[in-house]
Specification:
Helix content: over 70%
Distance between the termini: 46 Å
Number of helices: 24
Radius of gyration: 23 Å
Order of helices and strands: HHHHHHHHHHHHHHHHHHHHHHHH
Length: 511
């Protein structure tokens, strides 16, 4: 089914955000669902009481699949489009979910989790790009915060689903139903996608200018037309960026790994950084195995561990909305730096409480787990999923974001694979590692990461053209109301023939 201009403006943007949000909600649910069922007697009986090594394999091979999915997106998404790639990824997840739910052997469960991960890896590359290319700079960050909050919601949802279905133990329904519930999200995504437009920037890149202009007008609102000066200016600004990139020739894989005029390798490395910050903060060392973390570290029962994990997840979801109100005002850099510093402090306190090992310190350990998730959700979580799509040039955006997402999932695989055994053998020393990593993220972000808040995707091209790789001078958010300036102000950068002179659009980049 081809998209038709049936909804416009905020309704259309909200519909895109809803489908993107459903994909991120599924992502969060997938991250927590195995941890919610892996301790159930029916699951352990079905798979011959797996030891900590096998637990790590079953859990982490999903992340390995996500890594392969990111590579698939790297190779194909420029051809399939943003929306088409999400559809393909969702169908792959449907097959993986069916195979997981029907598993009776360890090998089937492991392979089906890899397959589900491949679909999710494709989606996690394309969903942030589709949304970033469809929203304006002044609300792009806030909308991506909502998606991050929905990742957080997936965790308690999977935990409470496991807790509820625990009542069916010893029937295998107790663990099959929470896994099968992934299909609910996939049905909504696959039904909704045909009614929504492709990314206008991807359409422009593929010479579908008229269709892209219609999409720009639809996103603006029902009163906008393809002949409105504002729509023409937006179209020409993107067209100028596309033309400039085409002058450099067709994008190749090797181009992504060379510097060149567009500073591609600089952007790839900077874009991959927040994805890796996300993982090496230690978040999934806790999130994937939160119930068994409480069981094995402080001796709580399975049921109480699930309840506390669910409550933590609900709080995680609720507080993860807070960046909506400040991420554009404060900027990506500030929230990332404060979040990393706070996460490091929490990990230090977790180590201390586990070493003290009294009844009181065990509950303080639980409290700092809560606080760690909260602080993580205020900075590292939202920035990690938006930054790469904001700094990559259009011609290599998909490839660059795919590399970043691939680094995220490869890191996730390593962490989740080793965590069960690390909890058993390292004890509190595991959390010292995460404290050191979080502390290191603070100076790295301060010195090397340019600010993207309130800057258009085309403006970021100018930031990188005006700076060499190294210490950045672009440390403050761009001017407010960037894309709602008066027509007279915009005319200063519009020549009416050759398109937008983006070199001056958006103010001084050397803040």
């Amino acid at each position: 089914m081809v998209w038709k201009k049936t909804v416009t403006g905020s309704a259309l943007r909200g519909s895109i955000a809803a489908i993107c949000g459903m994909a991120f909600l599924l992502f969060g649910y997938d991250q927590g669902v195995l941890g919610a069922v892996i301790g159930l007697p029916s699951f352990r009986d079905e798979f011959d009481n797996p030891d900590s090594i096998l637990e790590g394999i079953i859990a982490s091979f999903y992340d390995l699949g996500c890594f392969f999915g990111a590579i698939v997106a790297f190779l194909t998404a420029d051809r399939w489009g943003r929306k088409g790639s999400i559809a393909w990824g969702s169908w792959v997840m449907v097959v993986g979910t069916i195979l997981q739910t029907s598993s009776t052997e360890k090998i089937q469960m492991t392979i089906s989790r890899v397959l589900t991960g491949i679909g999710n890896g494709i989606n996690t590359v394309n969903v942030p790009i589709w949304q970033a290319e469809s929203f304006k700079s002044q609300n792009r960050g806030a909308m991506l915060v909502i998606q991050s909050a929905l990742i957080a919601l997936g965790h308690p949802l999977s935990t409470f689903m496991g807790l509820a279905s625990q009542q069916a133990d010893p029937s295998s329904f107790a663990w099959r139903w929470p896994i099968a519930f992934q299909g609910f999200f996939l049905i909504i995504i696959l039904i909704g996608l045909p009614f929504l437009p492709e990314s206008p920037r991807w359409l422009m890149q593929h010479d579908r200018v008229e269709e892209a202009t219609v999409v720009f007008a639809a996103l603006e609102g029902k009163h906008a037309t393809v002949n409105d000066p504002k729509i023409i200016r937006e179209r020409d600004m993107v067209m100028a960026s596309v033309q400039r990139e085409r002058e450099l020739g067709e994008a190749t894989w090797s181009e992504v790994f060379t510097e060149g005029p567009n500073r591609n390798i600089s952007r790839v490395l900077l874009g991959a950084g927040p994805y890796m910050f996300n993982q090496w903060s230690g978040i999934n060392s806790l999130a994937y195995f939160l119930p068994i973390t409480f069981e094995r570290n402080i001796g709580l029962s399975t049921q109480l561990s699930l309840i506390i994990s669910g409550v933590l997840g609900v709080q995680y979801f609720l507080v993860s909305w807070l960046p909506y109100f400040f991420i554009e005002r404060a900027g990506r850099r500030t929230v990332m730096i404060l979040s990393a510093a706070g996460c490091s402090f929490c990990m230090v306190m977790i180590v201390i409480m586990l070493e003290v090992n009294t009844l009181a310190s065990q509950w303080v350990f639980v409290a700092f787990c809560f606080l760690f998730f909260d602080i993580f959700s205020w900075g590292i979580l939202p920035v990690s999923w938006m930054y790469a799509s904001e700094i990559m040039p259009l011609r290599t955006r998909n490839k660059g974001v795919a590399i970043g997402v691939g680094s995220h999932w490869l890191s996730n695989f390593a962490i989740v694979f080793f965590t069960p055994d690390a909890i058993k053998n390292l004890g509190p020393k595991l959390y010292i590692i995460w404290a050191v990593f979080n502390a290191a993220f603070v100076p790295i972000t301060y010195f090397f990461y340019p600010e993207t808040a309130r800057r258009s995707l085309e403006d970021m091209d100018e930031v990188f053209l005006n700076e060499r790789f190294g210490v950045t001078k672009c440390r403050k958010p761009g001017p407010r109301k960037l894309e709602t300036d008066s027509d007279s102000e915009l005319e200063k950068t519009y020549d009416g023939k050759d398109g937008m002179n983006v070199a001056h659009h958006g103010g001084d980049f050397k803040n």
